[in-house]
Amino acid sequence: MKNKTVDEIVLEIKDKSELMIDLAYSSLLYDNTTIAKEVYDLEDLLDTLYKNLQKKTLELVENKKLSVDDALSVLRLAEAGEQIADAAQDIADIELRDVELHPILKMSIRDSDVVFTRVEVSKNSILANKTLGKLKLASETGMNVIAMRHGNRWLYGPNKNTRIDSGDILFAKGPEDGEKHLIELASGRTREI
Amino acid sequence: MKNKTVDEIVLEIKDKSELMIDLAYSSLLYDNTTIAKEVYDLEDLLDTLYKNLQKKTLELVENKKLSVDDALSVLRLAEAGEQIADAAQDIADIELRDVELHPILKMSIRDSDVVFTRVEVSKNSILANKTLGKLKLASETGMNVIAMRHGNRWLYGPNKNTRIDSGDILFAKGPEDGEKHLIELASGRTREI
């Protein structure tokens, strides 16, 4: 972490805070406490990132390497990220309260222009044994994988180099047409991405 | 608004608050105060929605049509949406401070797994004279249109029935491969979606 630049940390806070929101809603929809707890772990990570960023920003200002105006933008962007992360934690809290979300509310979270989905990758699926980068899943189907389970291992916010294996469970987010496409691909019924 | 159900309002708060975050980052990236001001207008709308939701939720509890546990989930989901909306407003504030964001910070917001882009729809583009629903732009390219400008008119969070015309400026968000595809489609260089 020590070697990250200010802009890299701002980016990480932005990306992680948005991932947290998606994970939090998924945890509610699939009544999944493992995902809800990950939101808590990410909140700890974001706190650390934020403290690190404050220190670096002040040092840059002290050394006249960053103007006061630019430093204010940095701190405000990061604070907004922190605020989004807090909101995500509050959503995850609903899941951790141990009261299952009312079915109508689940439908209401799902019934958006952007839906959440969960699929299992079958042996015959063309998704198996390929990386997300090679599959270009996001641009070909509109579906973003936000979390996946590989056996007992969980992975959050996978990247281009993440490999999908048969048996993996993918938690994804995207448009309704994309969900249909992803279900067909994961089941192996469609072999064309 | 009077006739909306509690779950419909929860969904609207969720969708609008996420749209606000995207609009706020776009306003910063493209130094666009019109979009930043829309974030403020949406915040006013969300406040009204939230107050309405509180009243409806309490009435349902009073009439024993909603349990206390379910009502708590409703209020907490809506509060989280409010918090996300506040964060979006803080990001839009950075734009409205009249200090242009440092280029490195702009790059850092852009250089994410999910990028923001802005394209103009040319006369030859196959996007022209079609609705977003017909184009299935989100599932075919991974790009979500978050705002568009049609002459002097702006439209935020367009839906399936929104028609694209030549000359429209689209502000969209999605994976890098999707951005390339959208640029090709909007320019008319690619006629296949």
Return residue spans of chain A where pLDDT drops below 50 for at least 5 consecutive residues.
none
Radius of gyration of chain A: 19 Å
If strands are numbered along the chain, what order do they take across the biggest sheet of chain A?
1-6-3-4
SSE order of chain A in H/E notation?
Answer: HHHHEEHHEEEEH
Distinct helical segment count of chain A: 7
The number of strands of chain A is: 6
* Overall helicity of chain A: 55-70%
Q: Mean pLDDT of chain A, as a whole number?
A: 93
Chain pair with largest interface: A-B, 56 and 56 residues
Oligomer: homodimer
The structural class of chain A is alpha+beta
Share in β-strands of chain A: 15-25%
Biggest β-sheet of chain A, characterized? 4 strands, antiparallel
Shape of chain A: globular
Report how far apart the termini of chain A are.
37 Å
Topology:
The structure is a homodimer of 193-residue chains.
Chain A: H1 6-29, H2 33-62, H3 68-96, H4 103-110, E1 114-120, E2 130-131, H5 132-135, H6 137-141, E3 144-150, E4 153-156, E5 163-164, E6 169-175, H7 176-187
Antiparallel strand pairs in A: 1-6, 2-5, 3-4, 3-6
